[in-house]
Amino acid sequence: MRVVTSIVVVGLLLTTPAWAQHKAPTSVGPDPSSPDYHELLLDIGEKGTVYHQIETIKTETRDGAAKVTRTDAGYRNDFTLGDDGYVVKKTLTRTSITMPDGQVIDSKSTAPEAVMVRSLIGSFSELTFIADDSLTPVRLENWPELRERSKATVLSLIRASGEKTSTDFEQSFAKIYDNLIGRMSSEQAADLYLKADSFMAIAHNVGLERNKPVITESTVIVPLGNYPLAMRSALTLTEWKPEANSARLSYDVGPTPEGMKAFLTEFMPRFLKEAGAPENVLKEIDTSLKNDPKSSFDMSTHCDYDVAIDNGLVRKGGCRQTSTFHLLGEQFSKVETYEFSESFTVPN
């Protein structure tokens, strides 16, 4: 049981969302005088509407057994430029979810499980957030009210499920929810609930030389343990085709080798020991990490973008976020794939 607990803790450490911190460029910046230098400026005005189409595939694999969940959704984003940036009202216009068992949940689904899932989604179907001039989400507005509404929805679904639940159970659930979600700031909540928006914004308002990546280092906080993990990203302009109104970009981000080594060999053993892992488990983990840490863990993201040169919107893009670990005979991976597009045009 102690070994299983240790594996679960490791999995949580590596797959829990991390909160972004400061960024600092580490490479020589692009040369604006170069013939290969080009800018992709977001030309959306001070007020308007942008439509998002987002498909998400989440695959969790444990010891060869995979569970795949697919979500296809559309959003309307009404924005107005204010003193602190853009105020964006994000409204879910359609959604369809395919569960691991093949069940499809959409607006026509009537099964009790489908109704419960739709109710939960409904609690987040309309969000207002503050974004910077690149439409990068900065913080969720009215986050405390949204958080409490979501918790109340989950509790009501539990009561309506027909399962007998005690008051102690509901109180325990509320406590766990508060510990996991309730401590988030409005900025952290924006990172969690608006991940696709953040991915799209990476390609907005950039100036780059073709095939010369801009390298940036940053720090993210791993919530379970509040560990500051050093990250390194690279943004590259790979194609510039004015005749097709198209620019192509690639983006990669992951822990720095030094940051990952410190996380795995210094922080994690200490954290597991404090969590109650026995000495023999700690020794096995230490040996595994020293032999080949790269084969044990992967925390990386890769994105590709096709951006419209005339307005700076992402015509088509995709990101693949991977978190895996292989330790003590246990294998676990979580891969999230996002396919997205944004447009001024109402989708069919």
UniProtKB/TrEMBL annotation:
<protein>
    <recommendedName>
        <fullName>Lipoprotein</fullName>
    </recommendedName>
</protein>
<keyword id="KW-0732">Signal</keyword>
<feature type="signal peptide">
    <location>
        <begin position="1"/>
        <end position="20"/>
    </location>
</feature>
